Amino acid sequence: MQLLRFGHAGAEKPGMIDASGQIRDLSGYIPDWAGDFLSPNALAGLPTIDPAIFPLVPSDTRIGPCIGGSRKYICVGLNYHGNAAALKQPLPVEPAIAMKALSAICGPHDDIELPRDASSTDWEVELGVIIGHKTKYIEEAEARVHIAGYCLLNDIADRELQSKRGGDSSKGRGHDSFGPIGPYFVPASALIDPQDIKLWLEVDGQRVQDCSTADMIFGVDYLVAYISQFMTLLPGDIIATGTPAGIGVGMTPPRFLTPGQRVRLGGDGLGEQAHEVVTHRSSER
């Protein structure tokens, strides 16, 4: 089951992919994929719905972020054995987390906009976890019932802003367009093992990341429980679970995004994203 949102930025509607791969408009059924409509109870009834009864969406319609109403976007750093080895970093004792600004969230085919004067913007294909229930002080064994589903995401970061401007590394993660999610999210009931998903990313057709979520240092359930010890997770909150080896900063010499490049990424059962890299532009929001 593949659930998504479509339409102009800021005015997206909820939809579903039908058996022929076309988008169906579910806005007459629910207001949005957000809030209580992401609870496992709400999602449980979806398999009984016949998508064919809902209107078709034109094939050229923009696909937006796969969920709405997020109140937190939490990024986990250095969470793959291979990436830690490539960066010559010791394995972390506890997960490292940072926050991404919600204004960074965009659609799976929107442009990646480089920050002004940027020269070190990097890519990070990741498995995204979407919270479905209010989650606070839970145990690892309880985590699955609090997860609405999963999505593909690219936790884009500018390394200069992230590491050389002092203080919180969130400075390098929050630029507009640095948080594409989707194209759709898959309910947790339809994706049995989040620790067995192949993730990949290409820059201008060259595959630079190719790994399974089995290489995670801290698994999905552990991350959800761990983060719930520090903050209350709410429906629609997003956890970016870390990226495999192959990021630009780990290459010799380091390699970063430049205007005109194309970034394509995907995950088993999670769909694909495709972006063009563009220069900084004035705010349109």
Topology summary:
Layout: E1 3-6, E2 13-17, E3 23-25, H1 40-44, E4 73-77, H2 81-86, E5 96-99, E6 105-106, E7 112-113, E8 121-122, E9 125-131, E10 147-154, E11 157-158, H3 159-163, E12 179-187, E13 198-203, E14 206-212, H4 220-227, E15 238-240, E16 262-267, E17 271-278
Parallel strand pairs: 4-15, 6-12, 7-17
Antiparallel strand pairs: 1-2, 2-3, 4-5, 8-11, 9-10, 9-15, 10-12, 13-14, 13-16, 16-17
How many beta strands in the DSSP annotation? 17
Show unreliable segments.
Answer: none
Reported by name, the CATH topology is Fumarylacetoacetate hydrolase, domain 2
Strand order of the largest sheet: 5-4-15-9-10-12-6
Number of helices: 4
Count of separate structural domains: 1
Task: State the end-to-end distance.
Answer: 32 Å
Question: Which whole number gives the mean pLDDT?
Answer: 94
- The proportion of strand residues reads 25-35%
Taking Cα atoms only, what radius of gyration do you get, to the nearest Å?
Answer: 18 Å
